[in-house]
Design goal:
This protein has one domain (11-130). Helices cover 35% and strands 14% of the residues. It has helices spanning 21-37, 43-50, 58-73, 87-91, and strands at residues 97-102, 117-122, 125-130. The protein has a three-stranded antiparallel beta sheet with strand order 1-2-3, with no helix packed on it. Helix 1 packs antiparallel against helix 2 (43-50) and helix 1 runs parallel beside helix 3. The protein starts with 20 loop residues before the first helix and ends with a strand.
Length: 131
């Protein structure tokens, strides 16, 4: 998502509400599936777009299309799991599970809701993620 775009209800700026809500929901639903299955890098953006499924504005559709453009330009990105090292390293006591989290405490100007994210890595490969 564009860092300079702040998603909100947008009616204060005189923006038009989308007439084709189902079209917006279809795009966001497809993005949600992609984020859950293969692309953890878009999880935060998709979660932010999902907040406006019942009342999207043109800025929300523009942001969703920007995520689609990002996916097109990064189509070669993949989850990577290391196969180096001995079998003992991968199954022994040297297994390292690393977790990262990033909370966003009430930063949404519209309703003061929080959004955070987390990812867990095993041998430097993402095994679990959420936003």
């Amino acid at each position: 998502m564009d860092l300079n775009v702040k998603l909100d209800l947008a009616e204060d700026r005189g923006e038009k509400e989308l007439k084709d809500i189902k079209g917006y929901q279809a795009i966001v639903g497809s993005l949600m599936y992609t984020a859950l299955v293969t692309r953890p890098d878009i999880s935060f953006a998709v979660a932010a777009l999902c907040r406006y499924n019942s009342r999207p504005f043109t800025s929300h559709l523009t942001s969703a299309k920007r995520v689609l453009q990002y996916l097109t330009s990064t189509a070669d990105f993949r989850l990577h799991f290391s196969t180096t090292g001995s079998n003992d390293q991968l199954t022994g006591n040297n297994d390292q599970l690393t977790g990262y989290t990033n909370p966003d405490w009430a930063n949404d100007s519209a309703d003061r809701k929080s959004q955070g994210g987390q990812v867990f890595l095993l041998h430097n490969g993402a095994v679990s993620w959420q936003s």
